[in-house]
Design brief:
Largest sheet: 7 strands, mixed
Shape: globular
Strand order of the largest sheet: 1-2-5-4-3-6-7
Bound molecules: adenosine monophosphate
Oligomer: single chain
Length: 298
């Protein structure tokens, strides 16, 4: 049975319909409808629990040339491993649908796990290069799950443009590499990180910070800004990174990494380079693992 519904925003009087699809045939038909007459379809892949960072991706897809925008909400079991708690991942389908409708989303793809991975599924996509190190080490198999689900989402929707947040810099590079390597005709549009007023990068996981941790959390961004400034100023990279890590530990973080890398390949850099550079950080605060990154001027 095809499951594809319409949702209207009665409260705001917005009668523009947003389609909600829960099976693949309905999704394919809806996407084909949105792509008629050369209209370009944008895609925003998410795991739900949406915040303003996700909504910025919708706007960015439009700015990049999408005539219609689809969002997917799928908590992808393939990208979680034993150490990540799949069951603990926040879910708020009703809230998400309201936000997407209010943001002018045209279509929402909400596949059940069996629609994404039917019994007998046996194919995965393994990206080497930018998958290696950092989150690849911290979460073995994570990028295999990300690359596999993103390839499926691109092929399921036939989207012309997909928007991804710079917040997950390594993921952005993995997905860009994968689409290029597999000749998938899609533009991967990077979107700058949306931050809270105090600098903390918005994340679905921030809700798990207690009040004290939430007050400390912006220190990660402050330390990264200082590190990036010092590298630009010419202070020795390894020394600056070691000092940055010490500052994080002193503030109560358990840093996993704080590293300067080549922006596209993620090769670690021991000194600054004329090519684009990125500062990557992951640090635990209580039980919450915070991720952040920023560009570094040479
Ligand atoms: P998630 O639902 O956490 O898997 O994220 C879905 C998409 O939203 C990914 O492309 C993320 O990089 C992006 N995203 C998450 N947080 C932010 C943020 N604070 N600013 C911009 N994009 C974000």
């Amino acid at each position: 049975m095809a499951v594809c519904g319409l949702s209207r925003n009665a409260q705001s009087g917005n009668l523009r319909a947003m389609k909600i699809c829960r099976d693949l045939p309905s999704l394919r038909a809806a996407c084909a409808g949105l792509r008629t007459s050369g209209r370009r379809l944008g895609l925003v892949p998410t795991m739900g629990a949406l915040h303003d960072g996700h909504l910025a991706l919708l706007a960015a897809a439009r700015s990049a040339g999408a005539d219609a925008v689809a969002a997917s909400i799928f908590v992808n079991p393939l990208q979680f491993n034993a150490n990540d708690d799949l069951a603990r991942y926040p879910r708020d389908e009703d809230g998400d649908l309201t936000k997407l409708r209010d943001a002018g989303c045209d279509l929402v793809w909400l596949p059940p796990v069996e629609a994404m991975y039917p019994p007998g599924s046996a194919s995965v996509i393994e990206v080497a290069g930018p998958s290696q190190g950092f989150e690849g080490d911290a979460r073995p198999g994570h990028f295999r799950g990300v690359a596999t689900v993103c390839a499926k989402l691109f092929l399921q929707t036939g989207a012309d443009i997909a928007a991804f947040g710079e917040k997950d810099w390594q993921q952005l590079q993995v997905v860009t590499r994968m689409a290029r390597d597999l000749d998938i005709p899609i533009l991967i549009q990077p979107v700058p990180t949306m931050r809270e007023a105090d600098g903390l990068a918005m994340s679905s996981r921030n809700r798990f910070l207690n009040a004290e941790e939430r007050a400390t959390a912006p220190v990660l961004y402050q330390v990264m800004q200082a590190v990036a400034r010092d590298i630009t100023a010419g202070v020795a990279v390894m020394q600056v990174l070691a000092e940055g890590k010490s500052r994080l530990i002193a503030a109560g973080f358990a840093p996993d990494y704080l590293a300067l890398v080549a922006a596209e390949t993620l090769e670690p850099l021991k000194q600054k380079s004329a090519a684009p550079m990125r500062l990557l950080a992951a640090a635990k605060l209580g039980t919450v693992r915070l991720l952040d990154d920023m560009g570094v001027v040479g």
